[in-house]
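User: Could you go from structure to sequence for me? I need the amino acid at each position, not a summary. Structure tokens:
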């Protein structure tokens, strides 16, 4: 999935699949301050109880397959944990404190029917939890957004952040990254039926939304310098502005936009091809932490034993009509 043709094919397959399924439009909050489900054993929930919208219409994840895959995950040797200060501290604390989201439909979505968190990122942090404890339920989730991911690590609120977290040089000055574990690019989201915006080259003079704290502002400055950029705190606010006509387009990571289209096939569409450099996702860790080595070792093992590909298929491939899994990124590069 390294070129525009493959990404465009992915979008076409996705739209075909979701339209055939007759999905209805629905949105969910995506910010750190969004309502959260009640904390309970096994779900890793940390915030106070609050009312939240039900899972949106869309291609639901195969919960049985997902849960079975996580339960079959590998477990680290005690010697490996003892040799690593980050892993030892987590093991001693009895819980892995994760920064993540509950509302990323394909990556980490709360299912209120059983209070499970499922998706590609959720699968990774649950597999890592199992790797450390031999029990995938021993984690706590603190909800983050693109503007709070560094701060929760710097203030020791979490041990690791799993949140489609792009690895950048500026971020590496304040935190460390394990990975990468996934790669994406940028894309332009518009309201369905929009014929004025045809891709990144048509954004001059247009009002374009992106997320503050994300790579979006820098990407737009480079690829659409004549666009009028409006920054929003989170994905929901940006998409709401697009739906209300306050902005003409929304530029962000292509994978995040797949979440939106998977839930709202009649509301949005991708304009043109993907663009920009490969956007590699990493797992955020405290600056200088030897947890990078430990987590990288874990990632290499689940890539080698086929778990990474199986997780991708359950969380993304089967739900977007994409049959062939991308090649897993080279960890540590």
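Assistant: Here is the amino acid at each position, in order:
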């Amino acid at each position: 999935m390294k070129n525009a043709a493959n990404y465009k094919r992915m979008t076409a397959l996705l739209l075909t699949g979701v339209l055939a399924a007759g999905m209805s439009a629905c949105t969910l909050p995506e910010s750190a301050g969004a309502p959260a489900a009640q904390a309970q054993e096994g779900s890793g929930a940390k915030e106070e109880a609050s009312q939240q919208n039900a899972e949106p219409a869309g291609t639901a994840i195969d919960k049985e397959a997902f849960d079975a895959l996580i339960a079959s995950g590998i477990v680290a040797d005690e010697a490996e944990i003892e040799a690593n200060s980050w892993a030892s501290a987590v093991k001693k604390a009895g819980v892995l404190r994760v920064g993540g989201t509950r509302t990323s439909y394909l990556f980490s979505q709360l299912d209120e029917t059983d209070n499970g968190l499922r998706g590609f990122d959720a699968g990774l942090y649950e597999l890592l939890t199992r790797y450390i404890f031999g029990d995938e339920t021993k984690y706590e989730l603190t909800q983050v957004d693109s503007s709070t991911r560094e701060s929760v690590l710097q203030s020791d609120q979490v041990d690791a952040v799993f949140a489609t977290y792009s690895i950048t040089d500026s971020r590496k000055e304040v935190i460390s990254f394990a990975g990468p574990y996934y790669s994406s690019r940028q894309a332009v989201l518009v309201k369905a039926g929009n014929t004025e915006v045809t891709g990144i080259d048509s954004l001059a003079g247009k009002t374009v939304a992106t997320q503050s704290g994300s790579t979006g502002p820098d990407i737009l400055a480079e690829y659409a310098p004549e666009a009028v950029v409006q920054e929003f705190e989170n994905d929901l606010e940006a998409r709401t502005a697009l739906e209300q006509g306050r902005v003409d387009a929304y530029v962000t990571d292509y994978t995040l936009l797949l979440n939106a289209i998977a839930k709202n096939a009649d509301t949005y569409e991708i304009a043109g091809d993907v663009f920009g450099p490969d956007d590699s996702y990493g797992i955020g860790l405290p600056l200088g932490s030897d947890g990078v080595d430990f987590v990288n070792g874990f990632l290499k093992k689940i890539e080698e034993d086929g778990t990474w590909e199986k997780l991708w298929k359950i969380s993304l491939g089967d739900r977007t009509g994409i049959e062939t899994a991308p090649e897993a990124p080279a960890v540590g590069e």
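One structural detail worth keeping in mind: The chain has eleven helices and twelve strands.
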